[in-house]
C-alpha cells in the first residue's frame, strides 16, 4: 500500500487485496466522472461570461456529488467483494464481471 496517495478508507486498507480493488474501482469511477464533468465544465464556461454565485454553485456542486458517488460506489463494491476481515466473499460478492 502506498503511504501518500490512493483511495484510502478503512475498507480499502484492510489488506493488499482490498487496497488493489478499492483503487482499481475508484479509478474506474473517477474516469467516468471526469468524462461527465469535463464537457459540463466547458459548457458552464461558455454560458457564463463572468463568475457569479450561480456559476460557482453550478460548477462546484457536480464535483462534490461526483466525489460522494466515487466514495459511495467504491465502498459498496468493497462491501460486496470482501467480508469485514478483508477476505474475498465466497460467491465473489456478485455475479457481474469485474470492470
Structural commentary:
The structure is a single chain. 62% of the residues lie in helices and 0% in strands. It is mainly alpha-helical and 99 residues long. α1 runs antiparallel to α2 (53-81).
Task: Describe the SSE topology.
Blueprint: H1 16-47, H2 53-81
Helix pairs in contact: 1-2
Short summary:
Helix content is 62%, strand content 0%. It has two helices and no strands.
Helix/strand structural class: mainly alpha
What is the gyration radius calculated from CA atoms?
17 Å
Number of strands: 0
The helix/strand order is HH
**Could you give the distance between the termini?**
21 Å
Shape: elongated
- The helical percent reads 55-70%
Largest sheet: none
Low-confidence regions:
none
Average predicted local confidence, pLDDT? 89
The number of distinct helices, counting runs of at least 4 residues, comes to: 2
Q: Tell me the fraction of residues in β-strands, as a range.
A: under 5%
Amino acid at each position: 500500500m502506498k503511504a501518500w496517495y490512493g483511495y484510502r478508507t478503512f475498507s480499502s486498507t484492510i489488506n493488499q487485496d482490498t487496497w488493489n480493488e478499492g483503487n482499481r474501482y475508484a479509478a474506474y469511477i473517477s474516469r467516468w466522472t471526469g468524462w461527465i464533468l469535463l464537457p459540463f465544465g466547458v459548457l458552464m464556461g461558455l454560458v457564463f461570461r463572468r463568475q457569479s454565485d450561480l456559476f460557482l454553485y453550478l460548477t462546484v456542486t457536480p464535483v462534490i456529488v461526483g466525489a460522494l458517488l466515487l466514495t459511495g460506489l467504491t465502498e459498496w463494491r468493497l462491501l460486496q467483494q470482501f467480508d469485514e476481515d478483508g477476505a474475498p466473499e465466497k460467491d465473489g460478492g456478485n455475479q457481474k464481471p469485474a470492470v
